[in-house]
Structure prediction request, 292 residues.
Amino acid sequence: MAMLTAFRTTTLPRFSSSIFASRLVLVADSDKFTHSLAEPWAGLVHIVQQKGGYSHIIAAANSFGKNILPRAAALLDVSPITDVINIFGSSQFVRPIYAGNALCTVRYTGSSPCMLTIRSTSFPVPAVSANSRSNEAPISQVDLSTFGEDSVGKSRYVQHTSQDTERPDLGSARVVVTGGRGLKSAENFKMMEKLAEKLGAAVGATRAAVDAGFVPNDLQVGQTGKIVAPELYMAFGVSGAIQHIAGMRDSRVIVAVNKDSDAPIFQVADYGLVGDLFEVIPELLEKLPEKK
Ligand SMILES: Cc1cc2nc3c(=O)[nH]c(=O)nc-3n(C[C@H](O)[C@H](O)[C@H](O)COP(=O)(O)OP(=O)(O)OC[C@H]3O[C@@H](n4cnc5c(N)ncnc54)[C@H](O)[C@@H]3O)c2cc1C
Prediction:
């Protein structure tokens, strides 16, 4: 089953749910959507757009949205705008370029629909109305009679593997502790996991740490990894390459521990400690109380 939310509105002022004139939840009930494969989902967006004639199609700039939206845009023959971090009116958007070192304001002048992926960390969570009825939306079934076998594409679901963890999701965690190549080994990286446990944090890693095999690549933060903006971001043994900074610079408070006082991470850190992480982390672990 696939669920899409449709809105009728004249403007897009930062997605406040209260401004939407009318909402509709579209439900497409078919086992073709069970495993979130991009091809059938893109085909579904295509069908929904052909029937609904929406002005905008928006997906989160996460791996799921980034997988589907460009495919759907190709089917609809429009050019998507990716990684939107701010919205002015219905056709003007801000997006980062050069690994976040510059912001670019773009105006969409193509044909309808305007398709966007947005960085959800750049937008406030919309207030939920105290009136529960205004949080409700009617549900409508999508007619899949024109959804041909071709729309399913060539991908086939094989299996899903994921790490069972009680830790918060990296993309939405309030605290993230990230380890870099300075950790030196997968064994040493376990210190980050202990620290995360004590802080109720998610664990992140640099690409160098991922490439060295310390952790799987779903923990990578940065331009080619996840974009995070937690309340507290702690970086240990991370040099602060622009591609890494691009994924965490919007964090509210950044703490960096590095033995090199010239490491670029200190340029974005609110609190920096020049020191050896192999001394700092054990001391932190000792002093932090056990999580209740
Ligand atoms: C197209 C492209 C995309 C990329 N995308 C990403 C991305 O998404 N995310 C990402 O992270 N990188 C990305 N990179 C790689 C990026 O350029 C850097 O190579 C990488 O971020 C470096 O990781 P690091 O800081 O762990 O390693 P290093 O740069 O090697 O830094 C290790 C740091 O650890 C410190 N250190 C060592 N030992 C200790 C110790 N005992 N105590 C304290 N500090 C210590 C060192 O002083 C050093 O500053 C990308 C690169 C390219 C070209």
